[in-house]
Structures are given as C-alpha cells and as structure tokens.
Specification:
- With 883 residues, this protein is mostly helical.
- Among the domains are: 87 residues, no CATH class; 115 residues, no CATH class; 235 residues, no CATH class; 81 residues.
- It contains 39 helices and five strands.
- The protein has a three-stranded antiparallel sheet.
- Strand 4 and strand 5 form a beta hairpin.
- Helix 13 runs parallel beside helix 15.
- The protein starts with 13 loop residues before the first helix and ends with a helix.
- It is found in: Cytoplasm.
- One of its GO terms (biological process) is formation of cytoplasmic translation initiation complex.
- One of its GO terms (cellular component) is eukaryotic 48S preinitiation complex.
C-alpha cells in the first residue's frame, strides 16, 4: 500500500512501472483498454492536493475517463462508479459479519462472570480431592467476592449454593476425622482449615434458606428455574442542606460520612457490631485508610449504649491506633499514643465496674452482629476474646521506641518521659485486673499473663532509686479506689521500695520459669547493687549460675546481664573492694565494646561486615537515655582500679626477675605504654590523662601527687557520697604506694623500721605492719617482721646465674606463645568447650598453689572472659567467697 502514498510529482516515472506490473496479467481486451483511465482516476484519488497543480489537459482527460467509466459501469450491470468502487457496500458487510459470527462468539459481562465462578468452583473441588485447605481457603475468598457481583437480591447462583453446601459437609467430615484419629497437619493446611471454618460459619448464615432447600432435594433445587429479577438502577444521590443536617455521622463542616455505594453511614447502637466487623476485616489490606477507620470508631464509641459494645469498640480502636506505628522505622504518633493510653485506662475502668464482662485469651468470638451476647445459664460472665497484657506491652514498647527517636538533650525528651508515670498506672491497674480474675476459680486465667504484667512493672522500677519508686507507687495508689487492694503488693507496704522489689521478684521465682525468672533475678541483683548491698548481690549472682547459660537467652536478657554485672562492679568499688571491682568490670571494659554490650550506642567498626538489617535490629535494642550507665564514670572506675593493682605488680616484676610476669588489665597496659612513649605530656585534660599521670606519680613513689590527680577528676561528683569515695581512694593510694615502695627498694635494704614507713606514707604503724605481714604471707616479699623491735628484716635471695636468667626468659616467651596459640584456636573454633577447658587446665597448672594480692589469687593463668556474660564464677567474686 505504501506505493499509493507517494507525492504526485514523482508519479510519472516510478508509479508507471508499478502500475504496469499491477495491471498486467489476466483480463479481457476491453479491460486492457480501460487501464489508462482507471490509472488516472486512482492517481487523482491517492495523490491528493499535489495533483491539483497539474494542468487543465490532465483534468479534461480525467473528466473524459470518468464519463467513459460511468458508461462502462452501467453496461457492466450496476457496477460502482468512480471512487465508490473502493468502498464496501451494505450487502458485503452483512455477509462478512455472518462469516465472523460463525467463528467468534462475543460474551456478555454476566456470562464471563459465570464462567469465572464456575472455574473457581472447579478449583475448590480439586482442592477437596487432594485435601489442600490452603488453596481452598484462597479460592473461597475469591468465590465470595465473585458471587457478590452475580447476586440478585438475597438470591445467589445455584452453583455457588451447591459449592458452599458441599464444602461445609466436607469440612465437618474432616474435623470429625481429626477428633477420632488425630493426624498432625502441616502449618499451611491447619491455617487454611481454620480460615475456611470461620469463613463458612459466617458466610453460610446469609444463604441458609437456599442451603436448606438444596439439602432437602438437591436435584429439584438445581433444576428449578431461577427468578430473574432486574437490579434497580442506581439513582443519583442528591444532597441537600436539610438532609445533610438530619443525617447521623455528619461532621461540623456539613459533610456526612459516605460508605460504599454512596450511602450515608448511619451510626446507631444496633449497627455498631456490623461496622466493627467491616473494619476488622479490612485491617491489614491495601489502600485501607486507617485514620478514617479511627474516626468512625470514635463516633461508634459515642453512640455505644451497652458495656459490651463499649468494650468491643475500645479494643478495636486501640488495636487500630497501634497499627499506625506498625512500621519498624517509625514510632507511633504522640497524639495517638496518648489517645490509646486514655482509651486503655477507660477499658480497664469499664471492666472494673462491669464485673460480669471479662476479657480473656482463647475465648471463642461472638459472630452474631445482629444482637449482643447474653449470660448463658450456669455462667456468670460474658467472655470477650482479647488480651489486656498485649495492649500494655505494646503501649510500653511504643513509648520506648518514641524515646529512642528523641534527642535526650532536649526538653522534648523530658516532656515525653513524664508519660512513664501514666503508663506505670496502666500497668498497675492491669495487674489488679488479672489478680481479680484469678480470684474466681471458674475462670481459666493463664498464669503467664499475670507474670508478663509483673515483669513489665519490674522493668520500670528496678533501675530507679528508692525515692523515685516511692513517688511512683504513691501516685499509682491514688488512682485506685480505697476499697480495692492488691494481694501481691498490698497498699500498706507501698512505701518500702526494697520490699516491693523483693515481693515482685519472689512471686516470679515461684510462678514462672525460663527467661522471665532469669530477668527477675537480674533485676533484683541490679537493685541491690544500686543500693550498695554488695555482698547479697554477689551471693545471688553466684548462686543463680546465670553466667553458665546466659548465652542461650535472648539478646535483651544478655544486655540486662551485662548491665547487672557492671552495677555489681561499681557497687564493689564504692565499698572499697578494688580487686573485686576490677575483676568484675574486666569482662565488659576489657573488651572495648562497652556501648554495644550495654545497648547504649552502635559502634561502627572499620572493617565490620554488618548488614543493614543487623544494624536496624541493633538500633531497636538501644536503651532510652534515662536508663544509661555513665560510660565515662565506668571507664574511670575501671582504670583507677587497674592502676591500684598494676603499679605494685609492675614494681614487683621489675625488681624480682624470678617472679612470673602477669598482666591484670591489657587495656590499662596499652594506655600506659602509649602515655610513656609521648615525648611531651602536658597537664591532664580528661579522665584518662588524670589516671595515667597518677600512675606515673605512684610508680615514682609520689603518692600525694597521685592522690591529687585522682581527686581532680570531676566525674566522681556523679557518684553518691563523693567525699567518702575520695577518702577511700586516698587510703587505697597510700597502701599501694607502700607496697610499691617495698617492691622497688627491698633489694637495697637489710632492715627497715616500721616507724619510718609510717611517717613516709602517713599511715598508722599497725596498718603498716598489717600490709607487710600480708605481703610476707602471700610470698610477695622475702622478709620477716620483728614485732619486738618493729622492724622489717629483708632476706637476700640467691643471685641468679646467666643460665638461670635465660631459662626464665625462655619460659616466659614459651608461655606467651602458648597463650597466643590458644586464643587463636578459640577464635577459630568460636570458643568451643574443649578449647576452653584445655586453656583452663594449663592456666591452673601454671599458677598452681600461689597466692598473690589481697583477698584472692594474684598469680596463675589470667583467663580472658568473654563479653556477654560467661565465666563469672572465676575471679574476684569467687575468690572473695572462698576467702
């Protein structure tokens, strides 16, 4: 066809050859004679306006050709004239339509829907043959959507009625077989069967008359003619000011809430359950306007007339508000959180006043939306399915997520933190509600629900000082009627915070197990350590044996274990137990990952291979700022304790080459070596500089200067009883200065008067004698104490030969090589038990029987403990119990 659409200028040459080819071939002589005229007519038609510029001679020729063609057409028996020969007449078009109808049949939209319905029914029947309830559930949902378009009035297609009736019978048969011979289904089939059961139970009520007719006589039902009733055409909605003013559900601007089909929604007490059913079915689906659903439920709450309706609306409304914060990256909006908190309080208050309505887990749902349930004979309650503790936990989690997203150094964080008081009141009211349910023996209240509420209450108080807990308890009891009391935590004992923590923890010890019991133990230890009850906290930590299996618990429980361990170490430091504090804090502070282990920040390492998913989970575990332990204070305590232990040890190994070299804190040693390599050291600027300067002064025997450096650290002001802490540190520095002096200068003395040492270090003579006696008994000092003359008599050791010195050096290097190999093996085997046991045995052999330091073993294999809560029994706490 493209040859006919060329311009008229070049038709003289190219088109002529084409036309000759086109018209050559078969034909009579008359037709051959007519070819020039036909060609001119065709050229004129197809060339368009380009041929209008041709001369008059061509036009006259064209006119003559048209006249000749007309005469020939009339002679040929009503042939077409001129250009009309290219058009299709009516007779030919009708014949073509008849041919098309013979090959293709056009279906109406209704027929197509019936075909889809039949295909879905066949898919359900195929699923029944292979007992595939997952596919049956999906196809049933599809079938119900399809029949809504084919339904006329209340009458559904007979094929649909037959399908759902047979499906219900098949379902009942399957359930009966499951009861007689229980056979475990896979998870997909079980979920599909439950979904079909609920859907059939709800759906078949609407078609019960037709189903009964089908079961009465299926053949007659299927052969009867269906009444074809024309659906009324939808009329256009006309809104007037008067009608809009009378319609219920109208808002202040004069607009009414319009549902599907353009009908105005009527919010009446009778329609509440239907609206709730619609909203619950649309939850989780795409293109669902959650805010619009919340507005509808707020209006339903206003028109709720019975307690049952109010409870159902409140529960659905709270769940819908929680859906707004379902994203992992966003927290629940503040206004909706406050609304959910007030609605949950209203729900608990309603349940408290309406004692014949109870909300329990595992209760069968009420399916009849036409009427509310009534108390059955022999029953005392209307049971509503739901979980109060789940609402409390979700409200608590949303507050935590909100605090994580707010900058803690702003006033907004303080304002948000004030909501914790109202949340604690909700938790307390939930605990009272579950206590009330447990008093009735006819109700099956799961013990786990009560344990979860108590655990949430404990999580909000274990890290707080007693004064703050007392205020929280007083405010909570003010919201409770005077006639109501708690059987677990009575009103009369609300003023004693220690007793409250003890009662809650003991209740969980007796009535729970697993993670909840372990967390209760850790919370009580944390509270005791926070309030300076070190020995009781240490004994509970050791007797609980949590250090042995804490790695099998979840991440949040391991974080709580690390926090408790740190708090026990700080408590030991405040008690003046430097060795115990250093050994306890070594596990966390020696790893260099304090932020990560305490969930107080995400450490971005240089060569880390952390995926975005792992980083997101790590950020979700972070604790709110008000629960943090000050990391600078923690480092200061750890370095100070390490200084008081390492400086005398360095002096001992430096003056006595036969003494086995040990390292108490590798972190402290690295910092000290780095500080000594500096050419010029200016005045100390931070906590680390103060400790390093104090270490150098203490090693040089300038204990007063060391005390000054330590006292100048401003972080001590964050600890309670700051002056007592500084006094304790000054006393510790004096004693360690005395030990360092004796280790350093013992080879140069034959005898040394106790009075001289007392005046040098400003210590009492009895204290000096006690320190020297302990050093001699631990075989740290080769001397004797003459109590008559009050002098220290030093024994000169045998001077080592060259061969002996080299042998000791070789032994030290071999021991270091063995430790390096064991660490490498442990990393490759990921800390397997066998490798760890071999390391323990060798460490025990190397340190056999020697006692060093004050209050515990100071020699032997220094086993590096893993961060996260393992091997707590070895070290200072265990040694302190044994000693």
């Amino acid at each position: 066809m493209s040859r006919f659409f060329r311009g008229g200028d070049d038709s003289s040459s190219e088109s002529s050859s084409d036309e000759e080819e086109l018209y050559s071939g078969s034909g009579s002589e008359d037709e051959q004679e007519k070819k020039p005229e036909v060609k001119k007519a065709a050229n004129k038609f197809l060339a368009g306006s380009d041929d209008s510029d041709s001369d008059s001679e061509d036009e006259s020729d064209d006119d003559n050709a048209d006249e000749e063609s007309e005469s020939s057409d009339s002679d040929a028996g009503q042939q077409k004239k001129g250009l009309s020969r290219f058009l299709v007449d009516q007779e030919s078009s009708e014949s073509e339509e008849e041919e098309v109808e013979g090959t293709t049949k056009v279906k109406s939209a209704k027929d197509k829907r019936f075909d889809e319905l039949e295909a879905t029914v066949n898919a359900i029947q195929n699923g029944q043959k292979i007992n595939d309830w997952g596919s049956i559930s999906n196809e049933l949902e599809k079938l119900i959507r399809q029949v809504a378009k084919l339904q006329v009035g209340n009458k559904a297609p007979k094929l649909f009625i037959k399908c759902i009736a047979e499906l219900e019978d098949f379902m009942n048969e399957t359930l009966a077989k499951q009861k007689v011979t229980p056979k475990k289904m896979n998870a997909t089939n079980a979920r599909g069967l439950n979904a079909v059961k609920q859907r059939i139970k709800k759906n078949n009520k609407d078609y019960q008359d037709q189903i009964d007719a089908f079961r009465k006589n299926s053949d007659e039902f299927m052969e009867s003619d269906e009444e074809v009733v024309q659906k009324p055409k939808p009329t256009k909605l006309k809104f007037s000011a008067a009608a809009a003013g009378e319609a219920e559900g109208e808002d202040d601007e004069g607009f009414a809430t319009v549902g599907k089909g353009g009908r105005t929604l009527q919010f009446t007490p009778e329609s509440i359950l239907k609206h709730l059913r619609t909203i619950m079915e649309s939850r989780g689906k795409k293109n669902t306007d959650r805010l619009e659903q919340i507005k509808i439920m707020e209006k339903l709450l206003e028109v709720a007339a019975t307690p049952y309706q109010k409870i159902r609306v409140l529960m659905t409304l709270i769940s819908a508000r929680f859906d707004l914060g379902s994203g992992t990256a966003t927290s629940m909006p503040l206004e909706h959180w406050k609304a959910a908190e007030s609605e949950l309080a209203s729900l608990l208050k309603t349940l408290e006043t309406e004692k014949d309505h109870v909300v329990l887990e595992g209760v069968e749902e009420w399916d009849d939306d036409e009427k509310a349930p009534v108390i059955a004979e022999g029953e005392k309650y209307i049971k509503i399915p739901g979980s109060i503790v789940s609402y409390i936990e979700r409200l608590d989690d949303e507050l935590t997520r909100s605090l994580q997203a707010i900058d803690p150094h702003t006033s907004e964080y303080i304002e948000r933190l004030t909501d914790e008081g109202s949340l604690y009141n909700i938790i307390f009211q939930g605990l009272l509600y579950y206590e009330m349910l447990q008093k009735d023996a006819t109700l099956e209240v799961p013990q786990e629900s009560l344990n979860r509420v108590i655990q949430r209450r404990l999580d909000h108080v274990y890290f707080k000082p007693s004064q703050v807990i007392k205020i929280l308890e007083e405010n909570s009891w003010k919201q409770i009627p005077s006639a109501l009391d708690s059987s677990i935590t009575p009103r009369t004992e609300a003023n004693d915070a220690g007793h409250l923590i003890n009662v809650l923890c003991n209740y969980l010890f007796e009535n729970s197990d697993g993670i909840i019991r372990a967390r209760a133990m850790l919370c009580q230890i944390y509270f005791l350590a926070l309030h300076d009850d070190y020995y009781r906290a240490r004994d509970m930590m050791l007797t609980s044996h949590l250090q042995e299996n804490i790695t099998n618990f979840d991440i949040t429980s391991q974080i709580l274990y690390n926090r408790t361990l740190v708090q026990v170490g700080l408590c030991a430091f405040r008690k003046g137990l430097v060795y115990d504090a250093q050994n306890t804090l070594q596990e966390i502070c020696g790893s260099g990952r304090q932020k990560e282990l305490l969930a107080q920040g995400v450490m971005i390492q240089r060569y880390s291979t952390v995926t975005p998913e792992q980083e997101r989970l790590e950020k979700q575990r972070q604790l709110p700022f008000h629960m943090h332990i000050n990391l600078e204070l923690l480092e200061c305590v750890y370095l100070t304790c390490s200084m008081l232990l390492e400086i005398p040890l360095l002096a001992q190994t430096g003056s006595s080459p036969d003494v086995k070299k040990r390292v108490i804190s590798k972190t402290y040693r690295r910092m000290l070596e780095y500080h000594e390599r500096q050419i010029f050291t200016g005045p100390p600027e931070n906590t680390r500089d103060h400790v390093m300067q104090a270490s150098k002064a203490l090693a040089a025997g300038e204990w007063k200067k060391a005390t000054t450096f330590i006292h100048e650290i401003k972080i001590w002001e964050l600890m309670p009883n700051t002056e007592e802490i500084k006094t304790m540190l000054a006393k510790q520095i004096q004693e360690e200065g005395l030990r360092t002096y004796l280790f350093t200068y013992a080879p140069f003395y034959d005898t040394l008067a106790v009075e001289t040492l007392s005046s040098m270090f400003e210590l009492d003579t009895r204290k000096v004698s006690a320190v020297v006696s302990k050093m001699i008994s631990h075989e740290e000092l080769a001397a004797a104490l003459d109590q008559v003359t009050e002098t220290v008599i030093f024994r000169k050791g045998v001077e080592l030969s060259r061969l002996q010195s080299l042998a000791l050096t070789l032994s030290d290097k071999a021991s270091a090589l063995i430790e390096t190999n064991e660490r490498t093996l442990e990393q490759r085997t990921q800390g397997s038990t066998n490798a760890f046991n071999r390391r323990e045995q060798r460490g025990g052999q190397r340190g056999g029987g020697q006692r060093g330091g004050r209050g515990g073993p100071r020699t032997g294999g220094n086993t590096q403990r893993q961060a996260g809560g393992t091997q707590f029994t070895g070290g200072a706490l265990g040694a302190a119990v044994r000693g």
